[in-house]
From TrEMBL:
It holds the Pfam family HPS6. Coiled coil: none annotated. This is HPS6 protein. One of its GO terms (cellular component) is lysosomal membrane. Residues 360-749 form the BLOC-2 complex member HPS6 C-terminal domain. GO terms for biological process: lysosome localization; protein localization to membrane. Residues 1-342 form the BLOC-2 complex member HPS6 N-terminal domain.
Length: 751
């Protein structure tokens, strides 16, 4: 039982093949036991479940369930023993057969087979002949009463049901039907929803069960069949539920994984011994944070959180079962054929302390680092790294960390002189690490009102740390997760790391170091990152600006361009501008917004103009013309015509073409005509005007009633300005033409 007071044994392989249930109190008096056996032909027994009695606190009910649905409920009375309360029928149909059973709270959950009426159905339909049901078991003073049957899932394949305190896991019982063996289901009774999870592929999809029609297995999979069909079948050898509510899965290769109730998967440990045979049993049980596992007579004790092997013991017996041991977190109890044994997981005080997790991580990271750079095909392990003596860096770092982390608990051993010098160099980094660990502890233990401030500080330290390290794919993925999980804190951390602020004139300034700028601008690009949802750091920061301070984004892009122009040669392939220009990358972030607004149009204009690139300026001008914002059109033309003669000519030609088509620019002609380039002649102007005159459907008349036609009078000031302007060739020969004597005197001849 969950309190460890009662033990129930189901004996199936006795000399006469008769099943027998034996229940007794482990610390009780004799005569309070229960023994039941059945003569054939009796249906198979499918489950023995302990249920808490709501009538008497601390008292337990034992439910014995047969495969055809008959259920005996026994009640334990102190000093009397086990008494039969009632016999019930769990299933409603006479042909139903229970294949798997569990208890969830005060309810029973089971998977039953409902054989089809037509025996000649095809394989796909006959495989979907199972149904997952639940029924409340209500215990009162008058006896036991079953609630109404509620169908969780019908027309489904066979599932093994496993219950955690708040969820029920539905694990495929067989791999005979290819499509259904590629995922598992998680039922959330409180939220009335089912989650489809393919943990190894990262696929999770939830659906609410609002009506009975939505409980149909085939309707549940609609919309996911295409994605699921391409997945590999689940590799499950053994499954069990942990005390934290997760699902423990052991693959046939010996990998132990934890599937959380939200469908995500975490790898814990790899068992030794190679592939597991189908008949070899694996026992799993969690005791606090320790996962105990028995395979082929070997007991493994594993830390669930870090995946570290704490201890490995060879047992003298092959077949053992774990027992509940509440209140004894450091004790693991095993049941074997010869008795009950207890195994203590606590260490004596004088024994050597295990290495801190951080030290283990140093060697594991060093293994990965050296393995990537090794030309040898042999696998490098932590043991080889510690004993080999070839790689001194991880050994030195581990010694320093162990010295620093353990000196508070007990006096530290003396360090080598070379290590002591390295320790003095690393003291600031170690202090930073310890303060970070302390801050994490504060986040976990802080009241809800203070969590936000602690999180902001933690995110700022993490963002600052990552910006000081190499910006590889792993670090970039980590930054993406930080910005997604803590957007506001990440925005504040970005402002702090880049030292962004407004000066007295209202202009944005940044005092970031060149190293930080290079991480922001010169890191991985989108084509190097891939299409898995991870975006480069520059795009992350732009998205943060758009969300929290959009009016600063154009100024930020302008700042980055100023830094690029001083750090990289123009169009250098190593620099960010040698690939996709920064303003275009910022425009790409803007384009990914879900909803478009007028403010976004204004932002697009500002981003185009802040780049000061000719193509971008002309694109902004066309956008303003399309929006018919003529005042802004003239302001942009007046400002950017001064940048270069070529851009001046393009801007003036564009506006002259608009002037020929309509009369919207007439109020601004006094500002527009002075922008006329010096090399543009009257002939060039008339050519542009004639090319862009609007084509009328009717015959032209001298005086139109519409009043929107172009007249010579409107063009006259411009043409006069061009004609009266001195010709370039006249200026070239002005000295000769203004000579006092014409023609010049003949030069003297030499005899």
């Amino acid at each position: 039982s969950p309190d460890g007071q009662h033990l129930v044994l189901l004996q199936k392989s006795r000399p006469p093949p008769l099943p027998r249930v034996v229940a007794f109190q482990r610390h009780g008096i004799a005569g309070a036991d229960l023994e039941r056996s059945w003569q054939p032909p009796q249906p198979a027994l499918v489950g023995l479940l302990f249920l808490q009695s709501p009538v008497t606190l601390g008292s337990w009910l034992l439910a014995i369930v047969w495969e055809h649905g008959r259920t005996e409920v026994w009640h334990f009375v102190v000093a009397v023993g086990w008494q039969l309360l009632q016999t019930l029928e769990l299933c409603q149909g006479a042909r139903a057969r229970i294949v798997s059973l569990c208890s969830q709270g005060a309810s029973l959950v089971w998977c039953e087979e409902r054989p089809p009426l037509d025996a000649h159905l095809d394989v796909s339909k006959s495989a979907l002949r199972f149904c997952v049901c639940t029924r409340a078991l209500e215990v009162g003073e008058q006896g036991v009463r079953l609630g109404t049957v509620r169908i969780v899932l019908h027309n489904s394949p066979e599932y093994q049901v496993l219950a955690s305190p708040r969820h029920v896991f539905l694990v495929p019982a067989t791999a005979s039907f290819a499509t259904t063996s590629k995922f598992l289901l998680i039922w959330h009774p409180e939220k009335a929803k089912l989650t489809i999870a393919a943990p190894s592929a990262g696929f999770v999809h939830s659906k609410a069960l609002r009506s009975s029609s939505e409980s149909d297995f085939r309707k549940l999979l609609l919309g996911s069949v295409g994605l699921l069909s391409g997945l590999a079948p689940l590799d499950i050898h053994t499954s069990a539920v942990s005390n934290s509510g997760g699902l423990l899965l052991v693959s046939t290769k010996g990998a132990v994984n934890m599937v959380e109730p939200d469908g995500t998967q975490r790898h814990i440990f790899d068992l030794e011994g190679g592939p597991l045979a189908q008949g070899s049993p694996v026992q799993l049980k969690t005791f606090g944070s320790i996962l105990a596992c028995v395979l082929a007579g070997v007991l493994y004790l594993i830390d669930q959180n870090s995946g570290r092997l704490i201890e490995k013991k060879i047992l003298s017996m092959k077949e053992v079962h774990f027992l509940e041991s509440p209140g004894e977190e450091d004790s693991i109890q095993l049941l074997s054929q010869t008795g009950i044994y207890s195994f203590s997981t606590s260490k004596p005080e004088d024994s050597s302390r295990p290495e801190p997790c951080l030290v283990e991580m140093v060697f594991e990271e060093a293994c990965r680092y050296y393995q990537r750079r090794s030309l040898s095909s042999s696998k490098l392990t932590v043991e080889k790294l510690k004993k080999g003596g070839v790689f001194q860096a991880p050994v030195a770092l581990a010694a320093i960390l162990q010295h620093s982390l353990c000196q508070k608990q007990k006096p530290a051993r003396g360090l080598q002189d070379t290590y002591a010098k390295l320790l003095s160099t690393m003291s600031l980094e170690l202090q930073s690490y310890m303060s970070l660990e302390l801050l994490k502890t504060c986040v976990v233990c802080a009241p809800e009102s203070e969590v936000e401030s602690y999180c902001e500080e933690l995110v700022e330290q993490e963002v600052s740390r990552v910006l000081q390290s190499d910006m590889d794919k792993d670090n970039l993925t980590y930054l993406n997760s930080i910005f997604a999980s803590f957007p506001k804190a990440a925005w504040k951390a970005t402002r702090s790391c880049l030292q962004l602020q407004q000066n007295g004139d209202g202009l944005l300034v940044a005092r970031a170091t060149p190293e930080v700028w290079k991480k922001v601008l010169g890191g991985l690009q989108q084509e190097e990152v891939g299409q898995n949802g991870v975006v480069p750091l520059f795009e992350l920061i732009c998205a943060s600006f758009l969300r929290f301070k959009p009016k600063w984004l154009p100024s930020f892009v302008e700042l980055t361009q100023q830094y690029v122009s001083t750090s990289w040669a123009y169009s250098s392939k190593e620099g960010p501008e040698g690939r996709v220009p920064l303003y275009k990358r910022a425009l790409g972030v803007l384009a990914r917004k879900n909803k478009r607004s007028e403010a976004d149009d204004e932002m697009e204009l500002e981003l185009l103009l802040c780049s000061k690139r000719p193509k971008a300026v002309l694109q902004a001008l066309q956008l303003l013309i399309r929006l018919k914002r003529w005042q802004r059109v003239v302001e942009v033309a007046e400002k950017f015509s001064k940048l270069s003669p070529l851009l001046n000519k393009e801007i003036f030609t564009t506006l002259l073409a608009e002037f020929a088509q309509h009369r919207e620019l007439d109020p601004y002609l006094d500002t527009l005509w002075p922008l006329c380039p010096a090399e543009l002649t009257a002939s060039d102007i008339l050519t542009v005007v004639l090319q862009h005159l609007p084509r009328s459907q009717e015959d032209p008349v001298p005086f139109s009633s519409e009043g929107n036609q172009l007249t010579v009078g409107l063009l006259k000031p411009l043409l006069q300005r061009v004609v009266q302007r001195p010709c370039v060739q006249d200026e070239m020969y002005s000295d000769a033409l203004q000579s006092p004597t014409f023609p010049p005197p003949t030069p003297p001849r030499e005899h």
